[in-house]
Write a structure and sequence with these properties.
Structural class: alpha+beta
Distance between the termini: 45 Å
Strand order of the largest sheet: 3-2-1-6
Helix content: 25-40%
Number of strands: 7
Order of helices and strands: EEEEEHHEEHHHH
Strand content: 25-35%
Largest sheet: 4 strands, mixed
Radius of gyration: 19 Å
Length: about 150
């Protein structure tokens, strides 16, 4: 049996999208399963990482149900996800805190710390990323400063 399909998952801002692509790079099927984003304040935007997994498995099941012949011919699986997000996990990969997504900007103090300690231009030269409160590094320091017991895992 030839492997002639790619299965791609996009863990996005509002949903998991799962897509089957054939050898000609044409979309054979696509499924989108939405999940919630929780805005706990004007600067906070979080998601439950368990929702990502639940929706990815649900999307996979729908593709299998609707295209069983394709699912037996998967050559590879690709996954893309949140840019600038942060998920704190333990050694087993279990999430310990809600995922701080790209639009979460609670780490303003931490951004200022890095700006003063290292400099925004130096951070850009080192990482290729603009220093801002949405940066993953700032979110990690925020977790350390505000939830040290979770950070310690």
């Amino acid at each position: 049996m030839t492997k002639e399909f790619l299965l791609a998952f996009d863990i996005g801002t509002s949903a998991v999208k799962a897509t089957l692509v054939n050898e000609a790079m044409e979309i054979t099927a696509s499924v989108s399963i939405p999940y919630d984003t929780y805005y706990t304040s004007v600067h906070e935007a979080v998601q439950d990482p368990q929702d990502w997994w639940k929706c990815a498995t649900e999307a996979s099941k729908k593709l299998v149900e609707n295209h069983p012949q394709c699912m037996k011919s998967i050559a590879g699986i690709g996954i893309s996800g949140h840019m600038l997000g942060m998920v704190a996990v333990n050694g087993d990969g279990t999430p310990l805190f809600p995922a701080l997504i790209h639009s979460d900007n609670r780490s303003v103090k931490e951004k200022e710390y890095f700006r003063e300690a290292i400099g925004a231009e130096t951070m850009y030269q080192m990482t290729g990323n603009v220093l801002g409160p949405s940066a993953t590094l700032c979110k990690i320091l925020w977790l350390k400063n505000n939830h040290p017991s979770i950070y310690a895992h």
